[in-house]
Protein: ABC transporter related
Organism: Alkaliphilus metalliredigens
Amino acid sequence: MIEAKGVYLTYPDGTMALHNIDLQVQPGEILYITGPSGSGKTSLLKLLLGIEYPTGGSLRVLEQPMSKEEATNIRRLRMVLGPVFQEFRLIKGRTAMENVMLGMRFLGLPHHQIKKDAHDALVKVGLEHKKFAPVENLSWGEGQRVAIARAVARKPALILADEPTGNLDKDNALNILSLLNSFRDEKTAVVITTHATHLIEEIDDGKFIQMEAGGICGERMGAT
Ligand SMILES: Nc1ncnc2c1ncn2[C@@H]1O[C@H](COP(=O)(O)OP(=O)(O)OP(=O)(O)O)[C@@H](O)[C@H]1O
């Protein structure tokens, strides 16, 4: 699903955010990317989403080569990716349900199907009761769940979540991680970035990489 070989990312201002990244993720796997602030976690997710392109090495996501020349195909690939952004990117003035439905508008599904899938996704994240609440009235954790519902309602092959635990307390943060883990199946992989190393130490199921100054400085494989 993800194959990175010697990947580099240098931003236009000369900052080398990633160097020599080798990575493999198979269907059904969950990968946790940890590391301190500025170590390159978000930059790596941006490459996986095709928001940035590698400046060296080779990267494939779901068989799609990730390079500037492939921009048109990468736009198509995004339909089967489920991003959960750090800042959620929910649309204010719209309800939770509308936000989830808007995330599905390019899939070409009939309206009744979109409505059903959006409803089912909100049920899965435990927010059915907030379906008609404008997103600006939701708590941070609820907003996070809407963002997750929006990502999973599309039934993506790859879920990519950037710092999904934010400043949640330990129990709620572990709940969010376990919720994301629950969407993994034989066809779906999950990638999560977090600087909350203390939380990751409590999890023994999955694949873990530790980043430091743009490189991978440690790897661990838990039970799967
Ligand atoms: N658009 C950009 N242009 C130039 N440098 C950038 C850009 N985005 C990020 N960087 C730099 O790249 C490095 C890695 O940043 P990145 O956001 O990937 O780290 P991170 O591990 O996700 O940090 P955090 O945990 O704080 O979100 C940092 O030095 C950052 O300042």
User: Anything to note?
Assistant: DSSP finds seven helices and ten strands in the chain.
